[in-house]
C-alpha cells in the first residue's frame, strides 16, 4: 500500500515502477523480450509489424539501439533491400518511418507495373473493331432481287 505522504506519489517514474511491481505479470517482461527476439514481419504490412513490435517493446527495459537492431532484423527482405540504399537510421522512430515509406513506394511501383502491363496488351476493342449490331441485308443482284442459284 501507499500512504498519502509516500514520495512515490510525487515522482511519475517511481510511481509507474511501483505500479508495475504491484500489478504486472511477473513473467511479462521476459516473454516480451523473447517475442522481440523472434518477431518477423512475415506477411503483415509494415504498420501491423510496427504496432506489434511497439506493444512488445513497451514491456521491456531494452535500450533503443537494441530495439532498432531487432526491428530491422524482423523486416521483410524487400524492405531491408531498400534500407541498404538509404541513410542508416539509428533511432527506432526514424527506422519505422523509413520502412513505412519504402513499403508505400514499393506498393506504388507494383501498381504502376500492373497498370502498364495491362495497357501494353491491346484490348479486344482495339484488336477487333466493333461490328455493327444491325444484321446486314441479304446480297442482291443489280435489279435488287435476291440471287437465285441453280442447283441443276
UniProtKB/TrEMBL annotation:
Record region (Disordered): 107-152
Source organism: Pleurodeles waltl
Domain spans labelled Retrotransposon gag: 9-77
PANTHER family: LDOC1 RELATED (PTHR15503), TRANSPOSON TY3-I GAG POLYPROTEIN (PTHR15503:SF22)
Compositionally biased residues, Basic and acidic residues: 130-143
Protein name as annotated: Retrotransposon gag domain-containing protein
Pfam families xrefs: Retrotrans_gag
Residue ranges that the Swiss-Prot or TrEMBL entry lists as coiled coil: none
Amino acid at each position: 500500500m501507499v500512504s498519502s505522504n509516500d514520495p512515490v506519489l510525487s515522482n511519475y517514474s517511481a510511481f509507474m515502477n511501483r505500479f508495475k511491481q504491484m500489478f504486472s505479470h511477473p513473467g511479462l517482461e521476459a516473454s516480451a523480450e523473447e517475442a522481440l527476439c523472434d518477431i518477423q514481419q512475415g506477411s503483415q504490412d509494415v504498420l501491423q509489424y510496427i504496432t506489434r513490435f511497439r506493444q512488445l517493446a513497451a514491456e521491456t527495459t531494452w535500450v533503443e539501439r537494441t530495439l532498432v537492431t531487432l526491428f530491422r532484423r524482423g523486416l521483410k527482405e524487400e524492405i531491408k533491400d531498400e534500407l541498404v540504399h538509404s541513410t542508416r537510421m539509428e533511432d527506432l522512430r526514424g527506422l519505422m518511418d523509413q520502412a513505412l515509406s519504402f513499403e508505400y513506394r514499393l506498393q506504388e511501383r507494383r501498381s504502376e507495373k500492373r497498370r502498364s502491363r495491362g495497357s501494353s496488351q491491346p484490348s479486344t476493342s482495339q484488336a477487333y473493331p466493333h461490328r455493327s449490331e444491325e444484321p446486314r441485308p441479304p446480297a442482291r443482284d443489280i435489279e435488287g432481287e435476291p440471287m437465285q442459284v441453280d442447283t441443276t
